[in-house]
């Protein structure tokens, strides 16, 4: 994007934000700006920057995951990976490497079943046998009070997303291509991106779309979570990334 278009776009966003703030009734929930209860969609991200997240597993090429992690690190970005432990537990080096690269690695359950459909003992086992961490991304983003309680008992906070790239949706006959995935992030509402969480998957065209997604976000004036060196199983709350 040219400097001219970029500055015009930033000016427009600023004007619209000012207008929205002017028009907002005083009683409206101030959302992430309030001294707020934990916001599961933002995973505790209070930084104002965008957190990119990568779910599931790279089935055809497990090493792609650490290549993505290395690329993100090279661009100064910390991301979060939510790996299915049925696979990740067979490749412990991948989690170790991602954390050494400065990324967070969270629990996405053991075998990616829809937790609310399971008897309580099975739902608990799916979480307990997931990748050891402090953030839980429930498969399909699907959970209720029971799952929140179990997760909390096992030391996890729920973490979903504010921007779904729909990169996983092959209902059109094939997965959306990289250009489509990139456009979905570019066109997502500003409020969902600033301090938000973007959902993508390791087995789709999301990794291929990544360079363009990062360029677009930066061109449009967004920051991305900063990479400041290695991480551990404990994902801080709040996320001041
Ligand atoms: Zn998943």
From TrEMBL:
<dbReference type="InterPro" id="IPR002509">
    <property type="entry name" value="NODB_dom"/>
</dbReference>
<keyword id="KW-0732">Signal</keyword>
<keyword id="KW-0378">Hydrolase</keyword>
<dbReference type="Pfam" id="PF01522">
    <property type="entry name" value="Polysacc_deac_1"/>
</dbReference>
<keyword id="KW-0479">Metal-binding</keyword>
<feature type="signal peptide">
    <location>
        <begin position="1"/>
        <end position="30"/>
    </location>
</feature>
<protein>
    <recommendedName>
        <fullName>NodB homology domain-containing protein</fullName>
    </recommendedName>
</protein>
<feature type="domain" description="NodB homology">
    <location>
        <begin position="48"/>
        <end position="225"/>
    </location>
</feature>
<dbReference type="InterPro" id="IPR050248">
    <property type="entry name" value="Polysacc_deacetylase_ArnD"/>
</dbReference>
<dbReference type="InterPro" id="IPR011330">
    <property type="entry name" value="Glyco_hydro/deAcase_b/a-brl"/>
</dbReference>
């Amino acid at each position: 994007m040219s400097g001219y278009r970029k500055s015009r776009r930033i000016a427009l966003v600023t004007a619209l934000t000012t207008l929205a703030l002017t028009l907002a009734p005083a009683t409206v929930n101030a959302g992430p700006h309030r001294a707020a209860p934990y916001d599961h969609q933002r995973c505790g991200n209070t930084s104002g920057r965008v957190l990119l997240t990568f779910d599931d597993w790279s089935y055809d090429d497990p090493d792609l995951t650490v290549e993505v992690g290395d690329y993100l690190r090279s661009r100064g970005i910390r991301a979060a990976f939510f790996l299915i432990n049925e696979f990740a537990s067979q490749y412990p080096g991948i989690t170790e490497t991602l954390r050494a690269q400065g990324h967070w690695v969270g629990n996405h359950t053991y075998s990616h079943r829809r937790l609310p459909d399971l008897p309580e003992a099975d739902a608990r086992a799916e979480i307990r046998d997931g990748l050891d961490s402090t953030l839980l991304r429930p498969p399909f983003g699907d959970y209720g009070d029971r799952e929140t309680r179990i997760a909390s008992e096992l030391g996890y906070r729920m973490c979903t997303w504010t921007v779904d790239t729909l990169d996983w949706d092959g209902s059109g006959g094939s997965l959306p291509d990289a250009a489509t995935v990139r456009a979905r992030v570019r066109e997502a509402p500003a409020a969902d991106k600033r301090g938000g969480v973007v959902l993508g998957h390791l087995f789709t065209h999301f990794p291929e779309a990544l360079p363009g997604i990062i360029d677009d976000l930066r061109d449009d004036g967004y920051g991305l979570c900063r990479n400041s060196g290695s991480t551990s199983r404990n994902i801080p709350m709040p996320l001041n990334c």
